[in-house]
């Protein structure tokens, strides 16, 4: 997905972010600050409140769709944009979501609702309801929309850790803003990491060849038991590329969703780098010093990583005493730390092994 090239003694990363089409609409929080509600009943046990269903495999894709579709919603948004003369205009967007709790909590992507002044939810029975509140986490591209409805059909949650390449999957959502539809495919790759913006790397993605089009963002990716194992998020769209859509795995997403429901936002330790897992092929191709660890693909200005002197092209092999073998290991190590912790980082720069220290800060709030 990314190409390193050599320039003198330094390496620079060329990402293919231009190929990443964020499907759905742009457009997060309705106008005005939203106060987080007190923790609603049913989630005071955290993630355990949403235990995987572990249902039996259904006999047909039609049964899978019939089971999940009542929980899938269409989301439409309105946001204000300005032209070069600073004249305002209203822009509409379309995306998808799914009911995670019967008392009106709906999961979607951050980029579906980001910047929206109005967020409307269309339920499976045709009712259109304006959102009361929107809670977002841009770092993971996740959001929770709250509507004042009860008795909604909540989708069953699966276990993405059991997913294997070749497993049948169904993507359901508001494709092209034309209403709820379904496409099918398989799990092409599991455990994928993609840098979606500077300092933001989406982890533990599920790649599928099920067609994911604009408007599908935020909708569920379900397994053959009709259980949600992913949240459709991004795709690669360019001439000659087919069948490369990505969903955020439910196991990765669920703790974030619970925080958004309980607290209204997610606060986590933040280092401020883009990540890419090293491998022998990349090391050999570009004559790097080590063939394991995590390659730094970007450093956010004034972030802890920047203050610690990290640069694109560095390869992190140890963080806070933990050996780092891939990007998910580093993400877990950062999450295990506390805001304010000073952590030791061991890394390679060209042919030199180096040591630095970074003081982690709280993740930046939504813009």
Descriptive notes:
The protein has helices at residues 61-68, 110-113, 250-263, 280-285, 304-307, 327-336, and strands at 2-7, 10-15, 20-22, 72-82, 88-101, 105-108, 118-122, 128-130, 133-137, 142-146, 168-173, 181-197, 200-208, 220-222, 228-236, 245-249, 269-270, 273-277, 294-299, 315-319, 322-323, 342-349, 352-359, 361-362. By secondary structure, it is mainly beta. Strands 8-7-4-5-6-10-9 form a seven-stranded antiparallel β-sheet. A six-stranded antiparallel β-barrel has the order 11-12-13-16-15-14. Strands 18, 19, 20, 21, 22 and 23 form a six-stranded antiparallel β-sheet that branches. The protein is globular and about 60 Å long. The chain starts with a strand and ends in a 5-residue tail after the last strand. The model is unreliable at 1-46 (pLDDT under 50).
Question: Mind sketching the topology for me?
Answer:
Blueprint: E1 2-7, E2 10-15, E3 20-22, H1 61-68, E4 72-82, E5 88-101, E6 105-108, H2 110-113, E7 118-122, E8 128-130, E9 133-137, E10 142-146, E11 168-173, E12 181-197, E13 200-208, E14 220-222, E15 228-236, E16 245-249, H3 250-263, E17 269-270, E18 273-277, H4 280-285, E19 294-299, H5 304-307, E20 315-319, E21 322-323, H6 327-336, E22 342-349, E23 352-359, E24 361-362
Quickly describe the structure:
The protein is mainly β. The chain has six helices and 24 strands. 13% of the residues lie in helices and 41% in strands.
List keywords for this structure.
367 residues, mainly beta, 24 strands, globular, disordered N terminus
- Categorize the overall geometry: globular
Q: Strand-residue fraction? A: 35-45%
Number of helices: 6
**What do the pLDDT scores average to?**
83
Cα gyration radius (Å): 21 Å
The counted number of beta strands is 24
- Class of secondary structure makeup: mainly beta
Helix content: 10-25%
**Largest sheet, described in full?**
7 strands, antiparallel
- Largest beta sheet: what is the strand line-up? 8-7-4-5-6-10-9
In the predicted model, the low-confidence regions spanning at least 5 consecutive residues are: 1-46
Following the backbone from N to C, one meets helices and strands in this order, namely EEEHEEEHEEEEEEEEEEHEEHEHEEHEEE
Distance between the termini: 28 Å
């Amino acid at each position: 997905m990314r190409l390193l090239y050599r320039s003198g003694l330094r390496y620079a990363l060329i990402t293919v972010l231009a190929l990443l089409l964020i499907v759905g609409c742009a457009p997060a929080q309705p106008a005005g600050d939203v106060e987080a509600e007190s923790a609603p009943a049913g989630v005071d046990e955290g993630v355990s409140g949403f235990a995987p269903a572990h249902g039996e495999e259904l006999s047909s894709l039609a049964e899978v769709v019939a089971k999940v579709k009542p929980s899938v919603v269409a989301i439409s948004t309105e946001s204000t944009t300005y032209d070069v003369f600073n004249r305002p205009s209203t822009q509409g967007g379309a995306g998808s979501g799914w009911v995670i709790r019967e008392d009106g909590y709906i999961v979607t992507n951050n980029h579906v609702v980001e910047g929206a002044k109005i967020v409307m939810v269309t339920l499976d029975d045709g009712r259109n309801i304006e959102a009361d509140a929107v809670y977002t986490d841009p770092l993971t591209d996740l959001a929770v929309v709250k509507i004042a409805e009860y008795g909604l059909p909540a989708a069953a949650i699966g276990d993405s850790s059991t997913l294997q390449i070749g497993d049948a999957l169904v993507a359901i959502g508001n494709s092209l803003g034309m209403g709820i539809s379904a496409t099918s495919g398989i799990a092409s790759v599991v455990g994928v990491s993609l840098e979606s913006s500077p300092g933001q790397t989406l982890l533990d993605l599920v790649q599928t060849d099920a067609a994911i089009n604009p408007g599908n963002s935020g909708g569920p990716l379900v397994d053959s038991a009709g259980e949600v194992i992913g949240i459709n998020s991004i795709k690669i769209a360019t001439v000659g590329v087919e069948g490369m859509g990505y969903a955020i795995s439910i196991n990765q997403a669920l703790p974030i969703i619970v925080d958004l429901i309980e607290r209204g936002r997610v606060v986590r330790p933040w280092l401020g780098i883009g990540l890419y897992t090293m491998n022998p092929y990349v090391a050999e191709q570009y004559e790097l010093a080590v063939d394991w660890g995590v390659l730094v693909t970007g450093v956010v200005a004034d972030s802890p990583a920047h203050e610690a002197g990290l640069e694109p092209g560095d390869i992190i092999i140890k963080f806070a005493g933990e050996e780092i073998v891939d990007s998910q290991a580093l993400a877990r190590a950062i999450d295990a730390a506390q805001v304010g912790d000073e952590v030791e980082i061991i890394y390679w720069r060209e042919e030199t092994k180096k040591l630095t220290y970074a003081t982690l800060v709280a993740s930046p709030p939504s813009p």
